[in-house]
Amino acid sequence: MNIEIKPLTPELIGDFLHYFDEVGFSNNLDWSGCYCYFHHFPGSIEEWLNRTKEENRADSKKSVLSGVTNGFLAYEDGNPIGWINTDLKENYVKVPYEEEINPSKEGKVASIVCILIAPLHRRKGIAKQLLKNVLVKLKENGIKIVEAYPRLGDLSDAHHYHGPLSLYQSEGFLIVKKFKDMVVVQKEL
């Protein structure tokens, strides 16, 4: 399988929207309206739950075109099949765990808030390829620490949208904070 990974740019807005319109949640229509905008949304959870798919799509599109939403798309034969939302932690309006865990460490902290692989392409190593590529790119951009927020338990693929713990551990992430239903993992680059 030949996978190409591209950083999200305004020029790829059509691929990004197509991925969320048609591909990423094709087996979970209840979640198809997020457009990976939740972590950039300035309102409350209640306000989020009352938003429409069209509102999220429009705001996510603006966010991508203005450079606010960052991440990487994975492609097979020119078609988007995977997505990872990553940026400096400080650039998100909200992340699953906001407290600084290693405040004495030098350098910027990047967060990974979403990994979504197309249903027909799951369990084929694409998330791992995507994560490996992202770690290289973040290091090249001077990031010192990468943080992610995998959920715990026997969950559906949809509920592992932060990425499964096993994926992060396979790439050397360490658990730095544990909660009942999630952990915070970090990796020094």
Q: Note the overall shape.
A: globular
Q: How many domains comprise the coordinates?
A: 1
Give the oligomeric state.
single chain
Strand ordering within the main sheet = 1-2-3-4-5-7-6
Describe the 3D structure:
The structure is a single chain. The protein is α+β, with helices and mostly antiparallel strands and 189 residues long. It has a single domain (3-188), classed as Gcn5-related N-acetyltransferase (GNAT) (Aminopeptidase). 26% of the residues lie in helices and 24% in strands. A seven-stranded mixed beta sheet has the order 1-2-3-4-5-7-6, sandwiched between helices.
Key words describing this protein structure:
alpha+beta, Aminopeptidase
Structure summarized in a few sentences:
This protein is α+β, with helices and mostly antiparallel strands. The chain has a single domain (3-188), classed as 3-Layer(aba) Sandwich (Aminopeptidase).
Q: Secondary-structure blueprint of this entry?
A:
Elements: E1 3-7, H1 13-23, H2 45-49, H3 53-65, E2 71-76, E3 79-88, E4 109-117, H4 126-140, E5 145-148, H5 165-170, E6 174-178, E7 183-188
Parallel strand pairs: 4-5
Antiparallel strand pairs: 1-2, 2-3, 3-4, 5-7, 6-7
